[in-house]
Amino acid sequence: MKRLAQEARVRQGVVDYAEKHGKSEAARKYGVSLSSVKRWSKRYDGTWQSLQERSHRPNSHPRQHSEAEEAAIRQAFVKAYARYGWDGVYAELLKGHGYTRSFGGMYHAATRMGLGWGKKWKRPSTAARRYPELTTPGEKVQIDVKEVPYCCLKGAAKRDGKRLYQWTAIDECTRLRYVFGYEEHTPENSADFLGRLLKVFPFPIQTIQTDNGTEFTYKFISRTEKVRLKRLWQTKGLHTG
HSE on the CB side for 129, CA within 13 Å? Predict the structure, then answer.
């Protein structure tokens, strides 16, 4: 039997004795204060559960979160927790809600409100993720460039000490992949790869996504100059992401 239940049973015996012999006599016999016997007798409803120890936590605190602050925490939690965790929730509160309390204060308030993974809050399924699954072939094609490791080179390329770079295009819907290699990491090769890609893929391409490297765009180093690849996909009517 748990300790709290044992204490409640003892209190039940004290109250039963007080009803038969008086509260003062029960206090003397069991060595407890008369005020405790009176308090237990007042709470007693015939079951030992009514005499269990109650929480001593205060019902309110002068610095407790207001209703507006709790509402802001809920909004920030729904918006940021699934993707960025508690750090993202706190950043969202500071940026979007004018929150002035500490991270620890926010966390304790949120857990007291029942926020966090559990029965009420479950991790969203893949159907509700931020980037939904694409269902149309060619809707988005990712292009990236990687240097081929030296240990993977063979024959003349390895003998002459050359460097090879692999351009890779992957369709997010069908996972169809096209790969081509070049000896130089240049925008001209990106444009050549795009031309080959448009001929090879069996369906039209709507959007191309890259990492915005200088082999794809100059937008971070020049406001006016455009690489050949940029001009090419504009003439083809492609969107970039």
Answer: 7
